[in-house]
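User: I'm writing a tutorial on reading structure tokens. Could you give me a worked example: one chain, its sequence, then its tokens, then a sentence or two explaining what the tokens reveal?
Assistant: Sure. Here is the example chain.
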Amino acid sequence: MTNADAPRTPPDHPRVALLVTCLVDVMRPQIGFAAVQLLERAGCIVEVPEAQTCCGQPAYNSGDRADAQKIAKDVIEAFAGFDYVVAPSGSCAGMVRAHFPELFANDPVWGPKAAELSARTYELTQFLVDIMGCKNIVTADASVKTAIAIYHDSCSGLRELGIKAQPRTLLKAVPGLAVRDYSGSETCCGFGGTFCIKYPDVSDRIVTQRLADLARTPGNLLLGGDLGCLMNLAGKLSREGSPLRVFHVAEVLAGGTDGASIGEEG
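And here are its predicted structure tokens:
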């Protein structure tokens, strides 16, 4: 582990910028509100920079390096000066943390800026557990009235950021909730950002297999940390008539499971 990779020691009340993410902003803003609630409960001073935009991952994954760099520069400037940057998404956090430095590896000006932002950027559960030392962050409303949750690990969070134990650690404190893995927990759901648009048939075969895996594991909730994956799974579950309800881990921790689940809106 290099000094840049070593965990930072947080101040008593760290100033945290929330990277909302495009999908959360447009499709499920309650995840963003839940993230703010959890961060504040952990003792953070939370701000949401108005100048933030997409992290640039769609352009990056499509091979559009020039536009990815332009977007990344905007992100670097928008999130300058904060103690930490936190995203309720392993995918977007992984883009900033793992791929921003790659984008500017040979740039003497933006390379150090990208590396500096990378070092203070975290996914939500990763930040709460690994940096803030939280084990019980649930709010008074966080109760699911006895439920069995199946957890799906998103590819970027698991493989780029090492997020596996963190969400499960936090979910242990939710009254009435038992969390289980399933045989597809660590396998791609088929979303893959633009992958599901470019290769819809392949994507559908992958998510169909995940539903077969889920059907072999008893549960009434499906949880995860990336909205893209959850939307993909929820859409297929809905089309197949499954009663499994889908939520982001932040929603459960903040007590936001009384309303419509992902895929049930409208």
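What the tokens reveal: The chain is about 45% helix and 10% strand. The chain has a mean pLDDT of 92.
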